[in-house]
From TrEMBL:
SUPFAM superfamilies attached to this UniProt entry: 2Fe-2S ferredoxin-like (SSF54292)
Protein name as it appears in the record: (2Fe-2S)-binding protein
Keywords: Oxidoreductase, Plasmid
Organism phylogeny: Bacteria, Thermotogati, Deinococcota, Deinococci, Deinococcales
Coiled coil: none
Residues annotated as transmembrane: none
Length: 89
């Protein structure tokens, strides 16, 4: 049986552990940190397209702006939602 290697990444300063094959978007949503917000209410919402076409799920992953729905979660990644980056300014 193959060994299951979990990834530990940092999401807006929180360390989380995810299973192999998890996307950064799924890791964020499982941690209650969705990068997606309703334009009407501002409440967190699910992914619009889930295939990288809409660019709404972008976040800063290891210093680069990435579409989180297409980005695999890897051990040691540092992910910051754009909302958190904007708060610094």
């Amino acid at each position: 049986m193959p060994e299951l290697t979990l990834a530990v990444l940092t999401l807006d300063g929180r360390r989380v552990t995810v299973a192999p094959g998890t996307t950064v978007l799924a890791a964020l949503q499982n941690a209650g940190l969705s990068p997606l917000r309703s334009s009407l209410s501002g409440e967190p919402r699910g992914a619009l397209c889930g295939m990288g076409s809409c660019y709404e799920c972008r976040a800063v992953v290891d210093g680069l702006l990435m579409r989180t729905c297409l980005t695999p979660a890897r051990d040691g990644q540092n992910v910051r939602r754009l909302l958190e980056v904007a708060r610094e300014f």
